[in-house]
Amino acid sequence: MDKIDLSERDICSKFITPAILTAGWAQEQFREEVALTAGRVTEGRRKIWQRVNRLVDDFETAYASCTSGPNPAIKEKMRGIRVQLQELMSSDAELAGVAAWCLRVRNSPLLTRLAA
């Protein structure tokens, strides 16, 4: 039987799971399939998207008011916003890809290097 004729479930059962077990993992350490409800994932994405948009808006507003002259309070606020955006896009953040994508879509020249 050719692998092309097998279903995804068959490939997992016949090839992937035995390879994981051979590598020394116990069956209790991994799950073959995890069902996610679309509602929770979609809601989380929406919240991240809104939060990133708010942070970008705040950053651009602070930057616009900072052009009139050096203001340490505003520069500190901008730094804090950058830190929050970096935390949202860190590798251990849940939905970090959504935050990075939102920042890329916003195409803010001041913040695009954070999403790189």
Brief characterization of the structure:
The protein has about 120 residues and is an all-alpha fold.
Total number of domains = 2
What is the end-to-end distance? 44 Å
Runs in which pLDDT lies below 50 for 5 or more consecutive residues are none
Amount of beta strand: under 5%
Number of strands: 0
| Net shape | elongated
Main beta sheet: none
Provide a descriptive summary of the structure in words.
With 116 residues, the chain is mostly helical. It is built from 4 helices and no strands. Helix content is 62%, strand content 0%. It folds into 2 domains: 35 residues, no CATH class; 77 residues.
Helix-strand blueprint:
Layout: H1 8-22, H2 38-66, H3 72-88, H4 96-106
Helix pairs in contact: 2-3, 2-4
Supply the key terms.
116 residues, mainly alpha, 2 domains, 4 helices
